[in-house]
Amino acid sequence: MSEGVQLLTRRRLMGVVVFGLAFAAVAIAVSVGVGSYDVVWANVWAGVEGADRQVAIHRILRSLLAFAVGSSLASVGCVFQALTRNPLADPFLLGVSGGAALGATGLMAAGISTFTIAQWTIPATPLGAFVGALLALNVVHHLSVVRGRIQVHRILLVGVVFNFFASALIMGIKALIPVESIRTVMLWLMGSLAGLKPSHEAFGELVIVGGLVLLGTGWMVLNARALNVASLGDEGARHLGFDLNRVRKRAFIVASLMVGAAVSVAGLIGFVGLIVPHALRQVLGADHRTLVPACVLLGGGFLVFCDVAARLLFPILLTDPPVGILTALVGGPLFVWLLVRGRVMTGWEDGA
Amino acid sequence: MAAALRMFLPIVWLLSSCTPTPSMNRAVESRRAPERIVSLAPGLTELVFALGAGERLVGSTTACDTPEAAQAVSRVGDFGTVGHEAILGRTPDLVLAVEGAVDSRMVVELNAMGVVTQALPMGTIAEIRTTIQRIGVLLHVSENARRLLSSLESDWRRLGHAHGSKRPVRTLLVLGARPLHVVSPKSFAGELLEAAGGLNVVSSEGPAYPTWTLEQVVAARPEVILLTRMSGATPALFESWSSIPAVRDGRVHVLTQDDQVLRPGPRLAEGANILAGFLHPAFGKPGEAR
Fold first, then answer.
1. Which of A216, B95, B174, B290 qualifies as a cystine partner to B117, CB 3.0-4.6 A?
2. Do B206 and A319 touch (CB under 8 A)?
3. Cβ <8 Å between B180 and A196
4. Alpha-carbon dihedral angle through residues A115, A113, B277, B169, given to the nearest 10 degrees
């Protein structure tokens, strides 16, 4: 990993950011331009109220939400891999998937579909998922602290055990929820950006998820050096006179808010948080000063492209496949190709 | 994978329209009428009651809620997940299941144990007709079956007279909102929709219950959108898209009674009538719009 740190120049960073922005822009442009409805753009530009404009707005909101979710999953995966020094770490590591799923299905079982606060009606499933994810993180985090210090191996073990425990509970809850909700639960467990929602609701989700992603990734970029030190492990950090505990605690809080938000709107989209950081580490090296911005921009773009692929499959399948399937189908081979090609070190060779 | 399949079983029930497997349904018309019947599907429970043999039911599923008397029958499990032992515990002399909704190995096994078990097709209206006849023979109530069929036949003819000549109404029938899960003409509910004078905007190719996105709805231009109660959706879901004719004309309705439409069974004509009420408000009693 030292190689990447030494090689960082302003030019290199600019190169990554410019490429990432271009990739993201192309992804969103393609996503807004492609779909089964033939949008007449002249009508959209002219501001004619009608089908073209309504579909265009729907596509823009969906694309931006996909981008925010992808950014959040990829950057959190990257940070978790650094903090735990475990290449298998993904955004759902800390019991997030189990907690979110429990929160969502629990409310379904209780038959609660919306909450009303003053004049706002808030859909219950995303809120339940968000709260569930945060509670799970809190529990896992709490159980992983020994004498005031976070024990990384404990986090990994407690997180995994918690997720198994939660999925057992979900199987139990499944028997209690109405048969018709099972499809929603299944889709949510696979991860999907489909699901019809009124424009104002989609916009609200975008503001919340997008806002948290901006704040969270901002923190990550500012703390990229600390993340570099963290990936050396406790021993290495101590030699540099660095207290990892504080970074870990803050990073876990930031990451949990980001993943909680992403999971609450899109369910458990797998793979993005695992392969995007690994693939980029292959290409860029392990310096988080470039890796984090790259994960944010390319992770978001990657999920947008997968969503486009899912939509393009509609005329063939005559049904809309969940994007969670596409991320694995597209991302798996791509990642293996990068790994086998093995031009650059993974950053994990030395001791992880 | 197995767990996922089990979760989908109730949906598989809806989707079931496979061909009968003769090996599972050996000739079983016994000389003696069965006295202790277990039904493993709500539609079959309704059929047994409709054929006047309800008092012979000794086991049913938690989903068997109609008619009211069915709720007093012992439960042998959830619809989709029933165990051998719960069934055997009722010492039945006939077990009725919907083909595709139960594990075919269980059917074979129960038969091998000497418990006559029949997996009957219920996926389409034609299959329901055949199944009514078949249950009539099995329960020794062929005369009742004949009467039920002929009353269904006349209900059906009445529907045809009422709506056959009208312009079909472009309709989208929605089963779930997240994802947008819709009904194709291949399904039982799709058949009812056509009988009610609807033109299903969903393609007859592809899956019987595909997932759609908003774009398909806009492109399909449905004149009426019907949301099943089980979808949990309300017309507010669509209000952002006034370019859809159904939304523009205020014709997005919730089917507050959706059993008749979604549950293959003896109330299929009732189901078609409920749909017709929404498609042709002038006809019969209008549906419960909201």
1. B95
2. yes
3. yes
4. 100
Residue of A nearest to B242 (CA): A50
CB of B109 closer than 8 Å to CB of B84: yes
**Contact with chain A for residue B211, Cβ under 8 A:** yes
B178 with A113: Cβ contact below 8 A: no
Q: Do A54 and B78 touch (CB under 8 A)?
A: no
Give the pair of three-digit tokens for residue A207: 């503001």
| CA-based nearest residue in chain A for residue B183 | A319
Q: Which residue has the tokens 């504080």?
A: A246
Q: Does B232 touch chain A (CB under 8 A)?
A: yes
Q: To probe the interface with A, which of B182, B200, B218 has the most A CB atoms within 10 Å?
A: B218
pLDDT single digits (tens) B38-65: 999 899 999 999 999 889 989 888 888 8
Q: According to the 3-state scheme, what is the secondary structure of chain B? A: CHHHHHHHHHHHHHHCCCCCCCCCCCCCCCCCCCCCEEECCHHHHHHHHHCCCHHHEEEEECCCCCCHHHHHCCEEEECCEECHHHHHHCCCCEEEEECCCCCHHHHHHHHHCCCCEEEECCCCHHHHHHHHHHHHHHCCCHHHHHHHHHHHHHHHHHHHHHHCCCCCEEEEEEEECCCEEECCCCCHHHHHHHHCCEEECCCCCCCCCCEECHHHHHHHCCCEEEEEHHHCCCHHHHCCCCCCHHHHCCCEEEECCCHHHHCCCCCHHHHHHHHHHHHCCCCCCCCCCC
Residue A96 is predicted with a pLDDT of 79
CA B250 to chain centre: 28
Residue type, B41: A
> Do B240 and A184 make contact, defined as CB atoms within 8 angstroms?
no
Q: What are the structural domains, with CATH classification, of chain B?
A: 2-158 (3.40.50.1980), 166-283 (3.40.50.1980)
Q: Do B216 and A196 make contact, defined as CB atoms within 8 angstroms? A: no
CA distance A123 to chain B (A): 12
Q: Which residues pair with A123 in a beta bridge?
A: A114
Tens of pLDDT, residues A162-221: 888 888 888 887 777 766 667 777 777 778 887 778 888 888 889 988 999 999 999 999
A199 chain-B contacts, CB cut-off 8 A? 240
**For residue A95, what are the contacts with CB-CB under 8 A and spacing of at least 6?**
A136, A137, A139, A140, A158, A159, A162, A163, A166
Q: Say if the ipTM goes beyond 0.90.
A: no
List chain A residues with CB under 8 Å of B236: 198
